[in-house]
Write a structure and sequence with these properties.
Carbamate kinase; eight-stranded mixed β-sheet; 12 helices; alpha/beta
C-alpha cells in the first residue's frame, strides 16, 4: 500500500519525539508499504516566529510572513529524514515546492491548486521514504513561497495522499482520535470509531482541533480515506470516511465549541439595499472568513445593526476595514466583542430527525445561558454564547444528548 | 550608487538589532542609493540547528543538512524586510534560489556557479530594497538547496555585488574593520584603513574571522570593492581593494592565527611514488581543504611520515578516510593532534623585502616556542606551534614587527 503519514507539531516537538516518529515510519515501511511523511513545525516554533514578526510590525507583510513561517517545517523535514536514515532506511526531505505543491498567491492562507507528484513518486519508486514539509507551497507565476494557514499541514497530507493515489492518509496527533466532545471538558467523552466527512467537516470548522477544515473538504472531494490517531501510542484511531447507513441512526455525533471567533457589530446602518453586500464583499476580498451573520432592524425602523463573526486573528484587519466603510455608509459605529464562544451540536442523523435545535435551546435555557446568535445547517446547530459559559454548555449538551453511551 | 550591505549573525542577533539594521539600510536608501541587503542567520541559530542534527546522527546526510541550515537565513530575511517596511520603505525578501544563486552540488560547501540577477535587478528598479538570504543557493539540475559553508554569507554578498555591478559591497560585522592582529589578544592592535585583496586573503585563510576566504577570492577576481565595518557604530571601516604603491612600503601588515586546524600524521608510509598523490586526492575528493603539508623521511630511509593540517570540523572524516588508506598502503598508522595553532605574518611588502621569515623564527625562538611546521607564500610566513603558545606568539610578533605604530 501507499501510506501517507502526517505528524503534527506535538508529535515532532523535540529530538526524542522525532526519533519515535522515525521508528514508526520505518516500521510501516518494513511492513512492505511505500511511505510518504508530511511534517509540521516543532510545537511552538510557528508561534515563536509569529512573535518575532509582531515585535517588528503589527501588520507584517504577508509575503514576507510566509518566507518566515515556512522555515519551521523545513527544519523538521530535514531532522526527520536524518532520523530515518539513522535507522538504516533511505529517506529524502522535500520542501513544499520540491514536492510540487503549487498554490494560489493568497499569502498566509493559500489554496493548493495542484500537486505534481513526479519527484515524490520517483523517490518512492527508488525505495526512499519521502519526507515533505507541510503547510507550504509555491505560486506558479512568481515562484513565491506561500503557507496554507493554521493547521495547513493536514491539508498538505491529504493533497499529497491524493496526488500519490495513496490507500490511506494517517494524521498523527496528540489525541487518540475524534471524540464526542473535548475530553478535557467532559471526561466521559467517547472516541468515535468512524465519522463521516460531513460531520468531521462541521466538527473541524466548529473548533474541534483534530483536523483542519480544508483538509476535510479536500478529503471529501477526492474520497481520501483519513485516519486520525495518536503518535504517542498504538491505539486505533478514528476513520473519517463516506457516510453509511449506520451513521444515519445516530442523531447527534458530537458537541463542538470554538473560542476563536469574535463578534463584530456595525451599529445604525441605514436600512438601504446593497450595504450588506458591500460590507461582506470587502471583508471577503481581504480573505477573511465570515462565519455567522445576523441582522436586526432597530426600533426606529430606519437603521439596522449587522453582526457577524470572524476569527479573532482577523479582528484588527476586520475592524479597520469595517470602520472605513462605516463612514462611507453613514453608520453609527462599530463594536467588537471578543468574549464569545460558539457551541455546536453535530450529526448526520439530524437530516432525518427533528427536534434537535429545540432540545439544544431548551438545555441552554435550563442552565441560564443566553443565546446571542443562532446558525444552522443540515447536520448542525450552532449558538453564540458568552465565553465564560463554554464548559458548562458543552457538559450540559453532552449529557442531554446522551453521548457518553456507545451508539 | 548600487550598494550591497551584508549583515552578519551578531548584527541581526535579535529584534532590536534587526531594527537597527533596517534603519541603516533605509538611511542609505534615502541618500539616493539602490540597496541590496544580504543577511546571515541570527547569531547562534546555525549552531543550534547543527546541534539538533547531531542529536540525531553523528554523520547527518549533507543534502538534508542543507535544507536544515538554510532555514536560519530565511527567518532573518523575512524579519529584516518587515522591519524595513515598518519604516515606510518598500522591501522584498528573497531566498537564495529566488535571488538566482546557482551553485554546484557539493552540499554544505557548495560553490557559486552563477547568479542571475534578474529578479533582484527588477526589484531594485521598482524602488524596493532587496533582502537576500545569504549562505544558500540551489543546484541547477536537481533543484536541491545548498549551503556555502561557514561564513558563506560574505560570499553571497560579494557575488550579489558582482551580479548587480554594485559600486560598493559593505560587510557589516561586530568589529570596526581589519586590524593588525586580534585586539582581544593585543590591545595595541591598529585598525588598517585599507588592505590589498591578497593580504586580506591570507589574513582570512589564516583565521582572521572578519571575512571568509572564498569571498575575498571572489572579490579579487571581479575587483569588487569591499568595506569591512561595524553595524554597532558609524566608524570608518577598512577598504579591501587592489594593491597600490603605498601598500608595498609596509613590509608586514598583520599577524593572524588559526586554532581551527588539526594536524594529521600518517606514520611509516612506504617510500614509494604515488602514495602521497593517492592520499591527497581522496582527501580532496571528500571536499576537505588541506592546508600545510610536510613529509619527513624517517631514519631507516625506507618509510616516511606525512603530516598535513585540515580544519578541525573535518577531523573525523579525514581520520576515517586516512585510516582506510593506511591499510592499503601498508603504513604503520595515523595520529591526530588537535592542540595546535597556526601563526602567520602577512604583508605584500615581503615580496620586495627579505628577512621576514628569519625575524619571525628568531622571535618565536626567543620566547621558547617550538615550530612544528613551516609554510610560506610570497606574502606570508606561517608556523604551526603548540596551541597554548598562541597568545604569547601573537603578542611577541606584533611587537617585533612594530605593528602598533601607524605605517
Amino acid at each position: 500500500m501507499v501510506i501517507v503519514q502526517k505528524y503534527g507539531g506535538t508529535s515532532v516537538a523535540n529530538i526524542e519525539r522525532i526519533k519515535a516518529v522515525a521508528e514508526r515510519v520505518v516500521r510501516t515501511a518494513r511492513e512492505g508499504h511505500r511511505v510518504a511523511v508530511v511534517v509540521s513545525a516543532m510545537a511552538g516554533e510557528t508561534d515563536k516566529l509569529i512573535g518575532l514578526a509582531h515585535q517588528i510590525s503589527s501588520h507584517p507583510n504577508d509575503r514576507e510572513m510566509d518566507i518566515l513561517l515556512s522555515s519551521g517545517e523545513r527544519v523538521t523535514t530535514a531532522l526527520t529524514a536524518m532520523a530515518i536514515e539513522e535507522l538504516g532506511y533511505k529517506a529524502i526531505a522535500l520542501t513544499g515546492w520540491q514536492a510540487g505543491i503549487v498554490t494560489d498567491a493568497v499569502h498566509t492562507k493559500a489554496k493548493i491548486e495542484r500537486i505534481t507528484g513526479d519527484r515524490m513518486g520517483k523517490a518512492l519508486d527508488d525505495g526512499y521514504v519521502v519526507v515533505i514539509a507541510g503547510f507550504q507551497g509555491i505560486t506558479e507565476e512568481g515562484g513565491d513561497i506561500t503557507t496554507l494557514g493554521r493547521g495547513g499541514s493536514d491539508l498538505s497530507a491529504v493533497a499529497v495522499a491524493q496526488a500519490l493515489k495513496a490507500d490511506l492518509c494517517e494524521i498523527y496527533t496528540d489525541v487518540d482520535g475524534v471524540y464526542t466532545t473535548d475530553p478535557n471538558i467532559v471526561p466521559e467523552a467517547r472516541k468515535l470509531a468512524k465519522i463521516s466527512y460531513e460531520e468531521m467537516l462541521e466538527m473541524a470548522s466548529l473548533g474541534a482541533k483534530v483536523l483542519q477544515t480544508r483538509s476535510v473538504e479536500y478529503a471529501m472531494k477526492y474520497e481520501v480515506p483519513v485516519v486520525v490517531r495518536s503518535s504517542f501510542n498504538d491505539n486505533q484511531g478514528t476513520l473519517v470516511t463516506k457516510e453509511d447507513a449506520d451513521m444515519e441512526n445516530v442523531v447527534v455525533s458530537g458537541i463542538a465549541y470554538d473560542k476563536n471567533q469574535c463578534k463584530v457589530t456595525v451599529l445604525g446602518v441605514p436600512d438601504k439595499p446593497g450595504i450588506a453586500a458591500r460590507l461582506f464583499k470587502s471583508v471577503a476580498d481581504a480573505a477573511i472568513v465570515v462565519d455567522m451573520i445576523v441582522q436586526n432592524v432597530s426600533g426606529d425602523g430606519k437603521s439596522t445593526d449587522i453582526s457577524f463573526t470572524v476569527p479573532k486573528t482577523d479582528s484588527k484587519k476586520t475592524l479597520s476595514l469595517t470602520e472605513s466603510l462605516t463612514k462611507e455608509f453613514g453608520a453609527r459605529g462599530v463594536s467588537l466583542r471578543e468574549d464569545v464562544a460558539k457551541i455546536s451540536v453535530v450529526g448526520v442523523g439530524m437530516r432525518t430527525h427533528s427536534g434537535v435545535a429545540a432540545q439544544m435551546f431548551g438545555c441552554l435555557a435550563d442552565h441560564g445561558i443566553n443565546i446571542m446568535t443562532i446558525s444552522t445547517s443540515e447536520i448542525k446547530v450552532s449558538c453564540l454564547i458568552e465565553a465564560k459559559y463554554t464548559e458548562l454548555a458543552v457538559r450540559a449538551l453532552h449529557q442531554a444528548f446522551g453521548l457518553a453511551e456507545a451508539a
